[in-house]
Amino acid sequence: MARTEAPNPVDAFSEDPIRGIVLTLGAVTVFAIADTLAKYLAATLPVVEIQWIRYVIYLGLALALASRSAPRSARWAMLRPRNPRLQLLRGVCVVGSSVLFVFGIRHMSMAQATTISFISPLLITVLSIPLLGEVVGIRRWAAVLAGLAGMLIVVRPGTGGFQPAALFGVASSCCWAMALIITRKISASDPAVTTVLCSAVIGTIVLTILLPFEVVWPSAWAFGLALVLGVLASFGQWMVVLAHRQAPASLLAPFNYLQLPLVTLGGFLVFDNLPDRWTLLGASVIIASGLYTAHRERVRARTGRKMPGNV
Predict the structure, then answer these.
(1) pLDDT, tens digit, for every residue of 130-170?
(2) Alpha helices in 156-248 (DSSP H)
(3) CB 292 within 8 Å of CB 244
(4) CA 293 – CA 125 distance, rounded (Å)
(5) Domains of the chain, residue spans
């Protein structure tokens, strides 16, 4: 799953839920295509090289966005992060999540890798307790445990169906959950454009350092597809930012799960593979728990206060 930048709640924008849903569906479709391209390219190009090309394009688009976000006189002051250490940690988590996901998808089916990535919202619920001081009630704990059980069904540790590459997917989800937790912590001080630009700069620097250790000269075809992947991933991220400025995350969350049938279709058309029954069963459990968690978040947002212990 192509990882997306969380929007900043302090960036005010008039809400239009229908437009937000349409943008989310567009982003999900773009990410499904991008993930299919990433798996295809990973057969001939090193993962770090694929992601480096993507991040160079991402950085260019982020700089273009930043140049239009404020008058020249105030631009650099606005783009200077007020939480540089957290921005650094977040940037490393984002690029780590992206690289680990492609490592995993290289050896797993599209559906299996995407299903594992859906545990990120559940991990955010768990991490929000020690890192954000949030209260998680019995109902949301039950949803988290159900989702983790669904992940175990997909991964199947200790059985003949276990694939070590699934650990890359789990690690990717952990990195992404940490990145979104940090996003919540810095959202009151750093605007979205600052966070996006910091992620692009940090990711590009990290991948540039790693690139000499794993690089091959790509064919014109592979290089062209890598450029397309970079454009699609960056465009999808921007659509997600726009979508979350139009509608709350709890409303949009269910539509993200439509990525699973799309990547399943891509996996069948390009790689001639389909998910097995255990992946479908685990996906059903994870999606159900994720939808319930999104519902509880919507309830908490509507009440405007911390929910009691049984919520």
Answers:
(1) 877 777 778 888 888 888 888 888 887 766 666 788 899 99
(2) 166-186, 192-210, 220-246
(3) no
(4) 8
(5) 17-303
| Chain position carrying tokens 């509608």 | 247
Show the 3-state SS of 52-118.
HHHHHHHHHHHHHHHHCCCCHHHHHHHHCCCCHHHHHHHHHHHHHHHHHHHHHHCCCCHHHHHHHHC
- Give the residue carrying structure tokens 């790509």: 218
172 Cβ contact list (under 8 Å, min separation 6): 96, 97, 98, 100, 101, 104, 116, 117
Do 140 and 310 contact (CB within 8 A), yes or no?
no
DSSP percent split of the chain into helix, strand, coil, nearest 5: 75, 0, 25
* SS3 call for 216: coil
Nearest to 112 by CA among 49, 47, 167: 167
| The model's pTM | 0.81
Tens digits of residue pLDDT in 35-77? 999 999 999 999 999 999 999 999 998 888 777 766 666 666 6
Residue 101 one-letter amino acid: F
pLDDT, position 250: 66
Block residue for tokens 């998910």: 275
- Structure-token pair, residue 213: 């250790």
Distance of CA 28 to the CA centre of its chain: 11
